[in-house]
Amino acid sequence: MSLRQVFAENKERRYVMFGGKGGLGKTTFSAATAYWLAQQGYRVLVFSVDPQASLSDIFQRDIFGKGAVEIMHNLYAQEIDADSHIKAYQDEIRKKILDMYGFDHVPEEIENYIQAASAEPAMEESAIFDAVVDVVVKGDYDYYIYDLVPLGHALYYLSMAKVYDEWINKITKLREEMREHEVMVARIKREKEIEQDQILNELQYIRQRINASSSILTDRAKAAFFFVLVPEEMIILDTQKAAELFAKFDVPLAGYIVNRVLPAELAQQDIPPYLRNRLEMQHGWLERIHKTFGRQVLASVPELERDVTGLPMIEKLSNIMYGEA
Ligand SMILES: Nc1ncnc2c1ncn2[C@@H]1O[C@H](COP(=O)(O)OP(=O)(O)OP(=O)(O)O)[C@@H](O)[C@H]1O
Ligand SMILES: [Mg+2]
């Protein structure tokens, strides 16, 4: 089956993700796929949480932290600025503490705790994921293309409900610590006890949203996850391992795309021994890929003459990936 067929036959799969190890072509394929879908008349958002701003690079536009930016008709790109989301989270927690406990400033030990909690990967992931939730839940687009960060990291997003639970536990602990202050403050101000725990309610609401969106991203009917790999031994092994892990998280695997394949016709040409050797090695690894992943291999993308940046190169690649031939 070709990539084109996979899209044609699964039209309800509107959440598309490209995953794989670092530097193999996730952003490149995300952009080319978004371009092709936009050409087909769909309204498409391609987005990432990558602080490296790779979408800015590939579209040659500064879009980092600027919301959804129109690249061309039907095609929008968005780079979520994770750091600013984490700061917003911290501010939100501070504000809640001030509101709830009637402090006029956040006590130093609590401030230290907020700082420490924010440095936790779980907190960072949560902030990022919440931003992703906002993007996905709004639902203004026909297709959402999620350009993932390198593999290990991506697993976090996909098991985010768990990570989020961790964060809630931390906040719950913080809240318990706050109780001591609360008792003190209540005594001083003779205020009646706070009936409901607003913070926890809020957190539980957020968790619901997280669950809603992680269930979208792992919904077999609505989501498609593509693995990007290249014909090299280590990458094949790592991809196999990752695929097993992803299966555990019920990530709906749509198939594999092999990138950076040297054109086979080079073999008939007068080429230096170095290149001939590379060709032969790739040939071997390609056979291995087809043996290992079989019919799940949906496309082989050639090594192009230059990096893929700018719309003309993106169009060229989208023709290669989704063209009729
Ligand atoms: N088939 C190809 N031919 C030529 N250059 C390519 C090809 N595929 C990708 N590249 C180039 O390789 C580089 C890495 O690609 P890309 O940024 O898409 O990888 P990535 O998987 O998103 O990386 P990261 O893990 O850092 O996010 C880019 O400069 C891109 O233009
Ligand atoms: Mg990338």
Key words describing this protein structure:
binds magnesium ion; elongated; binds adenosine-5'-triphosphate; alpha/beta; 325 residues
List the helices and strands and how they pair.
Elements: H1 3-9, E1 15-19, H2 26-39, E2 44-48, H3 54-59, E3 69-72, E4 75-79, H4 82-101, H5 108-119, H6 121-138, E5 143-147, H7 151-158, H8 160-189, H9 198-217, E6 223-229, H10 233-248, E7 253-261, H11 273-293, E8 297-302, H12 311-322
Helix pairs in contact: 2-12, 4-5, 4-6, 6-8, 6-9, 8-9
Bound molecules: adenosine-5'-triphosphate (ATP) and magnesium ion.
Unreliable residue runs: 191-196
Separation, N- and C-terminal Cα atoms: 13 Å
For the biggest sheet, the summary is:
8 strands, mixed
SSE ordering: HEHEHEEHHHEHHHEHEHEH
Query: Which ligands does the model contain, each kind named once?
Result: adenosine-5'-triphosphate, magnesium ion
Strand ordering within the main sheet:
3-4-2-5-1-6-7-8
Count of DSSP helices? Answer: 12
Determine the fraction of residues in helical runs and give it as a percent range: 55-70%
Structural class: alpha/beta
Count every beta strand, where a strand is a DSSP E run of 2 or more residues: 8
Output the radius of gyration: 24 Å
Overall pLDDT: 83
